[in-house]
Amino acid sequence: MRPGLSVPVRRALALTILLFVLWAAWSFVVSPAAQLSLGREADITLLVEELQHLRSVAAHRPDLERRSRALTARLASLEGYWTGPSDEAIAVSVQNLVRQAVSAGGGQITSTSDIGKSVDHGSPSLTIRFQVSGTLETLQRTLTAIAAATPALFVGSLEVSASGAAVASSQPPVLTIDVDVTAYRQPAPA
Predict the structure, then answer these.
(1) What is the pTM of this model?
(2) d(Cα 100, Cα 185) in Å, to the nearest integer?
(3) Are 21 and 102 contained in the same domain?
(4) Is 164 exposed, middle or buried, given 0-12, 13-18 or 19+ CB atoms closer than 10 A?
(5) I need a surface site. Which of 90, 150, 164, 185 has the fewest CB within 10 A?
(6) pLDDT score of 165
(7) Are 155 and 115 in contact (CB under 8 A)?
(8) Within a domain: 190
(9) Which domain holds residue 17?
(10) How many domains does the chain have?
């Protein structure tokens, strides 16, 4: 007779080893594969939702392009575009218009700089920055002249600051006005 483990102990030990192998297989093979599958399903759901959104946006594109063409044509018919032999000539015209408005309001242009040319939604544009010294009346007249300009001008940025120096109460405060003015040219035919 061999000394060793009894039959019930060996069976219990074999059953324990079998359960350990099954647990290890579940933990290291089956469970990660199931989790990977669930993660992929969530990714697929998100991608399907994004695809539906993109299809919705694409469906609206022809209408948006039509509206853009209609608004561009309307702007052209309202004399909204600046014309001239060059961007420099347009810049001079814009500067003269703003200079007249500032002078009419009792102000003074202290500096002018060309910010640059760009294309906004298919329309070439030219932006000029003005620094103006004047009063509230100067600001009002300048903005009124820009709003009423034909062809159209647009204010892209406006900063107003008052000087820190004390002034007599009978005098209006002197303001420093930084304004970016944009003029649009007719887009090239498509």
Answers:
(1) 0.57
(2) 22
(3) no
(4) exposed
(5) 164
(6) 59
(7) no
(8) no
(9) 1-77
(10) 2
